């Protein structure tokens, strides 16, 4: 019999850091204080919530924090993903100290604030928007989604907010890496507040690629997955994706991009099998003419 190497751990409040090891992101949430000043609050319990069609993040916060109160009042915030930098992380800990007003805590701010990147057309005229962090790798500018009831526990002061992502901005070099499918920013990893003394952070290792086994080929699911991520403005039916199953994996991204570009030229927002046939016929005619 193989000896069991596991042992039970008591599940305590804040179990993600008291009863387990749970790697988390490090973000700064910028909000607007009642005086109109931008407030920065460091958070790690911030995760994708709805990932298709409607895009949103889940933020877990103390309900009486500056950030939470500002979100409930102003309905807007920005999620700033900062790079790994020990001096910046030290400042995050300073900015996260509870009980201070925005004016008190922001005296210790070391981050550079720049205006929201929302265009005039993307703004509500009667609403103010918080600044964003210039040192950030990327920023999600968000609005509180009030179609979801806010979870609020008066005993533990735990509150959950669903934040609709209105705009994502990213530093140019990382956008290029994103589009090319290679290269990753150096983002910090948070392991939480432990031993009642320290916050624990880690520098992430360089990601490595694990290719799909050759014998697996392009399944319909794989094509659908890639198609859904090619362009948010153009959707695909499953039947249309089936027509690309035989495309070699190395050329799939290019093939999808070509189909989407042609769809946009034609004013098409949903690619169907019939439209795929039209593309095939067009390419056949171009080949004959050549």
What can you tell me about this protein's structure?
The protein is an alpha+beta fold and 290 residues long. It has two domains: 15-203, Roll (Pnp Oxidase, Chain A); 214-289, Helicase, Ruva Protein, domain 3 (Orthogonal Bundle). The chain has nine helices and 14 strands. The protein has helices at 15-18, 66-74, 86-95, 102-105, 172-180, 220-228, 238-242, 249-265, 273-289; strands spanning 27-32, 38-43, 46-50, 56-62, 76-81, 113-114, 132-133, 138-144, 151-153, 158-170, 188-194, 198-203, 235-236, 270-271. The strands form four sheets. Strands 1, 2, 3, 4, 5, 8, 9 and 10 form an eight-stranded antiparallel sheet that branches. Strands 6-7 form a two-stranded antiparallel sheet. The protein is globular and about 70 Å long. The chain starts with 14 loop residues before the first helix and ends with a helix. The mean pLDDT is 90.
Give me a quick take on this structure:
This protein is an alpha+beta fold and 290 residues long. The chain contains nine helices and 14 strands.
Please supply descriptive tags for the structure shown above.
Pnp Oxidase, Chain A; globular; 290 residues; Helicase, Ruva Protein, domain 3; single chain; alpha+beta; 8-stranded antiparallel beta sheet; two-stranded antiparallel sheet
Identify the CATH homologous superfamily of the largest domain. Answer: Electron Transport, Fmn-binding Protein, Chain A
- Report the major sheet: 8 strands, antiparallel
- Taken together, the total number of domains comes to 2
Helical/strand content category? alpha+beta
Mean pLDDT: 90
Strand content: 25-35%
Identify the CATH class of the largest domain: Mainly Beta
The oligomeric state is single chain
What is the number of E strands? 14
Which architecture of the largest domain would the CATH scheme give at its second level? Answer: Roll
Report how far apart the termini are.
71 Å
Low-confidence stretches: none
* CATH fold annotation of the largest domain: Pnp Oxidase, Chain A
Give the helix level as a range of percent: 25-40%
Number of helices: 9
Taken from the alpha-carbon principal axes, the silhouette is globular
Return Rg in Å.
23 Å
- H/E series: HEEEEHEHHEEEEEHEEHEHHEH
């Amino acid at each position: 019999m193989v000896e069991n190497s596991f042992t039970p751990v008591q599940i305590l409040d804040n179990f993600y850091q008291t009863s387990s090891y749970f790697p988390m992101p490090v973000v700064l949430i910028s909000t607007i204080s009642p005086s109109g000043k931008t407030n920065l609050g460091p958070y790690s319990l911030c995760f994708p919530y709805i990932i298709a069609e409607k895009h949103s993040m889940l933020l877990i916060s103390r309900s009486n924090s500056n950030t939470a109160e500002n979100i409930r009042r102003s309905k807007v915030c920005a999620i700033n993903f900062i790079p790994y930098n020990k001096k910046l992380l030290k400042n995050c800990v300073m900015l996260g100290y509870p009980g201070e007003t925005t004016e008190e805590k922001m005296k210790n701010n070391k981050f550079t604030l720049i205006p929201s990147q929302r265009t005039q057309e993307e703004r509500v005229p009667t609403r103010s928007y918080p600044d964003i962090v210039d040192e950030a790798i990327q920023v999600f500018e968000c609005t509180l989604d009030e179609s979801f009831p806010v979870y609020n526990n008066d005993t533990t002061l735990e509150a959950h907010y669903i934040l609709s992502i209105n705009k994502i901005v990213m530093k140019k070099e990382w956008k290029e890496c994103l589009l090319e499918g290679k290269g990753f920013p150096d983002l910090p990893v948070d392991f939480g507040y432990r031993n009642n003394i320290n916050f624990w952070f880690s520098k992430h290792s360089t990601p490595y690629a694990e290719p799909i086994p050759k014998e697996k080929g392009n399944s319909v699911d794989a094509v659908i997955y890639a198609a859904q991520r090619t362009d948010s403005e153009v959707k695909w039916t499953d039947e249309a994706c089936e027509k690309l199953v035989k495309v070699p994996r190395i050329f799939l991204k290019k093939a999808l991009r070509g189909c989407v570009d042609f769809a946009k030229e034609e004013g098409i927002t949903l690619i169907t099998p019939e439209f795929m046939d039209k593309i095939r016929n067009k390419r056949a005619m171009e080949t004959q003419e050549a």
